[in-house]
Design a protein that fits this description.
Layout (H helix, E strand, L loop, with lengths): L2 H27 L9 E4 L6 H12 L4 E5 L8 E7 L2 E7 L5 E5 L14 E3 L2 E3 L6 E3 L4 E3 L3 H4 L11 E2 L1 E4 L2 E4 L9 H5 L2 H5 L8 E10 L2 H8 L5 H4 L13 E5 L2 E5 L18 H4 L3 E4 L3 E8 L2 E11 L6 E9 L6 H33 L6 E4 L4 H14 L6 H7 L7
Antiparallel strand pairs: 1-20, 2-12, 3-4, 3-6, 4-5, 5-10, 7-8, 8-9, 11-12, 13-19, 14-15, 15-16, 16-17, 17-18, 18-19
Length: 410
């Protein structure tokens, strides 16, 4: 590990310790910082079609999106395809070990080049006319080239998309000409996420859950207020309803006051286990949640990728179950399966079922507002940034992210 990488890791760990100390202080004092006032938002923001189209254009089609985990593309030639807000995307690990992403569309007539969802290939051949591309997206072969006519192959590769790999995750921007770099977008948040070490983790399971408007779903990522109520029959009966929020640009960590952290004081700080420092929910704007858990199956996380559906009233969430190590015994595998099954049930039958009913009810209350309390600062921060982003032109995106503080928000 190079000096700069080592320094970054040391700084990130120090930041995790600082947040743990803050958590301890909150527990000891019995007081919780709150935002100054209650926020009111027009309920129509969750179902208005014009606003939803602006969100698709100004958020999901121009913000870097976390579309894959590094462990899904371990070796050269590994690829993944997916449709993101109507854009077909191909992600591939190249021969050099880098990751690149392209619009999955042939430069000949626009046909989808790769129809499989994942696999490993040396070449990608369009099923329509057999034009062939290499792992770098370059056009290497034109079927019956003498009959087709001469073209400059170097000008007809796949359309590349801005791509970055950080902290064991892969970000892709759907706008090929985006002026916003992925590093500027992350605001240093990836240095904290790197403490998980996801590069060496294993993808254990993956499922898709259908849900409500994407913002209703995202609101739930940062909401601990509902845990002992909505989830009282599953896991939330003894959960606190209070939250501590820390922000890096639009990205946020939400933690609950944890009395158990005080036990760390019995050992030196440099021996504090990183898994204890990383507990809580980490959100990546505009569509990812990372929730940690430890059970009989071993250390794991659920990484949820939230994507808008085909209307304002629907979304889909890909639940990725990652484990630090694959369970070595049948008993541990069963425990992991049970854990993941419970998490799917909680999201699908409790969170999203409530959200779907919520949006149906809101549509019958013209002029209604939804409220975010002084104890729901994370939701307030999310919606304020959303409004700023919708009003920001492409050329001003870098300045917007530079203007955002990278200090913790409480």
């Amino acid at each position: 590990m190079g000096t700069s990488t080592s320094t970054t890791a040391t700084t990130a760990r120090a930041r995790l310790i600082e947040m743990a100390r803050h958590n301890m202080a909150v527990v000891e004092s019995g007081t919780l910082e709150q935002v100054p006032e209650v926020m009111r938002l027009p309920a129509e923001r969750y179902y208005d079609e014009d606003r939803w189209r602006r969100e698709m254009d100004r958020i999901f089609r121009r913000m870097p999106l976390m579309l894959a985990m590094s462990c899904e593309l371990r070796t050269p030639g590994d690829f993944k395809t997916l449709d993101v807000c109507g854009v077909p995307v191909l992600i591939v690990r190249t021969d050099s070990g880098d990751v690149r992403a392209f619009i999955n569309s042939c430069s000949h007539r626009g046909a989808v080049v790769v129809t499989e969802s994942a696999g490993n290939r040396k070449r990608f051949t369009c099923p329509y006319h057999a034009w062939t591309y290499d792992r770098d997206g370059s056009l290497v072969s034109v079927y019956a080239e003498d009959d087709f006519g001469g073209i400059d192959k170097t000008c007809h590769g796949l359309t590349a998309l801005p791509t970055g790999e950080r902290a064991g995750m892969i970000w892709v921007t759907l706008d090929p000409d985006s002026p916003l770099s992925i590093d500027a977008f992350l605001c240093g948040y990836d240095h904290l996420l790197a403490q998980f070490g996801f590069e060496s983790w294993e993808l254990y399971d993956q499922r898709t859950v259908i849900g409500p408007n994407w913002k209703i779903a995202y609101d739930g990522y940062m909401d601990l207020y509902h845990l002992p109520i909505l989830h009282r029959n599953t896991f939330g009966s003894n959960m606190p309803n209070q939250a501590l929020y820390y922000a890096w640009g639009p990205h946020q960590r939400v933690s609950s006051p944890d009395p158990g952290l005080s036990r760390l004081d019995a050992i030196p700080e440099d021996e504090w286990p990183v898994e204890r420092l990383l507990g809580s929910v980490w959100t990546i704007f505009p569509h990812v949640s990372i929730a940690s858990f430890d059970g009989g199956g071993g250390r794991g996380v659920m990484i949820s990728q939230l994507f808008p559906g085909e209307s304002p009233l629907e979304s889909r969430t890909v639940q990725n179950y990652l484990m630090a190590e694959l369970p070595p015994t049948e008993e541990m595998r069963k425990a992991a399966d049970d854990q993941f099954r419970l998490l799917k049930y909680v999201v699908e039958e409790e969170d999203y079922a409530t959200g779907l009913a919520q949006q149906r009810a809101l549509r019958h209350r013209p002029g209604a507002n939804v409220l975010f309390g002084r104890n729901e600062g994370g939701g307030q921060h999310f919606h304020r940034f959303l409004d700023r982003l919708l009003d920001t032109d492409d050329s001003d995106l870098p300045a917007l992210f530079r203007s955002m503080t990278t200090e913790q928000g409480r």
